[in-house]
Amino acid sequence: MSGFWSTWVMVLACVTAGISLFLFVWGITMRIPTYKDGTTGHAWAHGVLREGVRPLPIWWMAVSLGAFLFAAVYLYRYPGFGSFGGKLAWTSKGEHQSAAAANGTLVEARVAGWRSLGIDQLATDSGAVSIGHRVYLDNCAACHGRAGHGNRTIGAPDLTDADWLYGGDSDTILASILDGRNGMMPPQGEALGHAGVNAVASYVVSQSGTLAPPDQVAAGKVHFETVCVACHGPDGRGNPQLGAPNLFDKAWLYGGDITSVVNTVRDGRSGVMPAWRHRLDQDEVRLVAAWVVAQGARKAAP
Known about the structure:
Elements: H1 3-29, E1 39-44, E2 49-52, H2 58-77, H3 92-111, H4 119-122, H5 126-139, H6 141-144, H7 170-179, E3 181-185, H8 189-206, H9 214-232, H10 258-267, E4 269-273, H11 282-300
Antiparallel strand pairs: 1-2, 3-4
């Protein structure tokens, strides 16, 4: 704090305290002239109501005096009087660092025993899964939802099913969280034309159980085997190496209705999973991965 502002704060504090103390003392010691009946002579309602004068209550004076004493002690012990740091040399930064260090000690004691466990083992530990869920909520739920069911509007995948773009083993999940992913479906509208796009979309949705015109499905199959197999494979089951999704199941990133699939084929899609390496430490990433694995295990159990 500069000298000017430090002086300004001290002057403001002294003036405010001085005026308040003056009013306190004045309110206790001043005497208002009254008649023998204890009133000032002011009357309302044709003399029915008359203004009286009573001394200030003892409790009010005690509370006010206590407030002045508290303020004086506070300004002596803590910062608040210009650049004076207070007798205790307390700072909010120091308080935060102390609290963070204490919390770090507690966290370290809690996670130290989990570092020797694999992700699949962590996924069976209710304590690890609970903390992993909290880290997930703070960092991942904005895109994938609180329960991990994804968001088709932005192409965030469901993390609780058995469908994986890049693989669902623990090492792959850790890599996805740490380094992120960049997925792109190139637009095929120009290559296929309007009719070709509709035909491919019809073929794709038909493989996941949606009814489509047989002639469109047949034409779409030809286009698919010519244009789409390079990424999605001849059986349409996708390619984890490229992050190309399985097109013949019932899991959809952007929606499985015919309109959504037409839009995807014609205009393409571009999805980004940001890297969390610089925000989350290794322990936090492992706990999030354990929570994700645990959700899949719960679904598979029944």
